[in-house]
Write a sequence for this structure.
């Protein structure tokens, strides 16, 4: 069954603050529901959002079209396909985030700077480098006969010096040594602390932020 994620289950505030976005940033991101990409677009110069699942691509593209049309109510309408208090709280949190005065308008003005593309973020990397990469929790889907660190090293090559890599849950890295990664990247303790503080308000993720060494 191809389940479609219609809302993020992360703290958007935590993602944005942890990535320390600015108007000069170009971002490479996992697409998922698209919520994170839309949120990043408010602050960054441009966002390239990638996903391998046709259902997610179609859903996020439709969300983008709703924003472009000005159909904000429908953009914010989410159905809790899994009936749980946690998911209902997440949906409410996402609505509250996007309903912040002036936020939707800023995102709509920059929709032309959001590219939604089909691909594998580890294999179908664009030629250009990025100042920020958002990985969501895709590392937990890496098969055990492959190495998460090897894949992160590929992404490190796509980061500009001092660029940031945001991972939704650092526990996905515990299964192997991080020594090869630490040659090129270092954990940003302050941004990690900020992201975790926001995430703990509504969720159970343990985000971590890495910085590409200069």
């Amino acid at each position: 069954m191809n389940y479609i994620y219609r809302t993020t289950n992360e703290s958007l505030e935590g993602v944005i603050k942890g990535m320390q976005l600015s108007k000069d940033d170009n971002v490479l991101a996992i697409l998922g529901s698209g919520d994170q990409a839309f949120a990043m677009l408010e602050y960054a110069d441009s966002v390239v959002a990638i996903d391998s699942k046709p259902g997610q691509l179609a859903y996020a593209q439709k969300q983008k079209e709703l924003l472009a049309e000005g159909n904000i109510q429908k953009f914010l309408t989410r159905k809790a396909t899994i009936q749980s208090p946690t998911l209902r709280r997440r949906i409410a949190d996402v609505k509250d985030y996007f309903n912040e005065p002036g936020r939707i308008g800023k995102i709509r003005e920059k929709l032309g700077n959001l590219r939604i593309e089909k691909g594998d973020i580890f294999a179908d990397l664009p030629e250009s480098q990025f100042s920020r990469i958002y990985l969501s929790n895709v590392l937990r889907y890496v098969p055990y006969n492959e190495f998460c660190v090897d894949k992160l090293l590929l992404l490190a090559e796509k980061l500009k010096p001092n660029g940031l890599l945001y991972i939704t849950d650092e526990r996905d890295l515990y299964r192997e040594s991080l020594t090869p990664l630490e040659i090129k990247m270092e954990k940003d303790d302050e941004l990690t602390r900020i992201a975790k503080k926001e995430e703990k308000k509504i969720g159970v993720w343990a985000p971590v932020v890495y910085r590409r060494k200069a």
Notes: Residues 76 and 96 are 10 Å apart (CA to CA). The chain has a mean pLDDT of 93. The chain has one domain: 12-212.
